[in-house]
Amino acid sequence: MSKMKKVVVIGGTGLIGSKAVKLLQDAGHEAVAASSRNGINAYTGEGLADALAGADAVIDVSNMMSFDKDVITDFFATSSRNLTSAELAAGVRHHVVLSIVNADQLAANPYMAGKLAQEEAVASSGQAYTIVRATQFHEFIETLAGAYAADGVVKVPDIDFQPIAADDVAAALVEAALGEPKNGAVDLAGPERASFESFIRTYLDAKGDARPVSADASVDYFGAPVVMGSLVPSGNYIKGEITLAEWLRT
Length: 250
Ligand SMILES: NC(=O)c1ccc[n+]([C@@H]2O[C@H](COP(=O)([O-])OP(=O)(O)OC[C@H]3O[C@@H](n4cnc5c(N)ncnc54)[C@H](OP(=O)(O)O)[C@@H]3O)[C@@H](O)[C@H]2O)c1
Description:
Elements lengths: L5 E5 L4 H12 L3 E5 L13 H5 L4 E4 L8 H22 L3 E7 L9 H14 L5 E6 L6 H7 L1 E2 L2 E5 L2 E2 L4 H13 L6 E5 L4 E2 H11 L6 E4 L21 E2 L4 H6 L1
Parallel strand pairs: 1-2, 1-3, 3-4, 4-5, 5-9, 7-11, 9-12
Antiparallel strand pairs: 6-7, 8-10
Helix pairs in contact: 1-6, 3-4, 5-7
The site of NADP nicotinamide-adenine-dinucleotide phosphate (NAP) has 27 residues, from helix 1 and strand 4.
């Protein structure tokens, strides 16, 4: 039986973070659900030293939604620098951060530029780390459908898509955190790859939304030009188990 460990989940009150905290606790570990509203702030550094004392690993799933590149880049880079230096001071063994598949190729999208800055801050920190790059969550498809809707039609990029359930993401992060640092990135994607259009269609059908969905090669990913493989892993990856249809049924 593995030894009980203390793991600090930065963003532990959010979608992925709350699931990771529960998985850790269910497995008998001590999990700290860290977030700015409970006095542990990765961006300002408030509360980090106390929270990290005695921790074996940190899972960073904090988030900030902005499409201002300077704001989002500053948030992710500053938070990662604060976290990794506090971890080094506290003797934390492993930093795990959740990023996005192909973030480096999509940096014309301001949010992706922020995620790339986050990855770079972690990789250059001197702290042992693993970057887990996930595809878009099933839970994010509603936001995507809304963002691509105009004039009663949902027009999406003509590319592949391979979404993953938040439960699968949380499980992969916990496994990564309890394991050895890769000092590199691993990709994580859902069990099915198909067109972006078909996933949006499946989602809207399940919600009783009959708006037409079409694919258009001129549509980008929120400012980033895309090709067929832009949102899916190109090499080896960890595969989640929960299909969109299964997730929709629950
Ligand atoms: N959506 C997708 O499809 C997708 C795909 C791949 C990767 N990701 C990544 O997944 C990560 C987690 O996303 P999510 O949907 O779980 O986020 P979320 O539900 O919005 O939760 C964000 C969490 O971050 C905390 N937080 C924000 N600022 C903080 C700060 N300064 N210090 C400490 N905690 C802070 C929030 O709590 P407080 O407000 O209390 O601080 C909250 O607990 C993000 O980094 C995102 O880039 C998302």
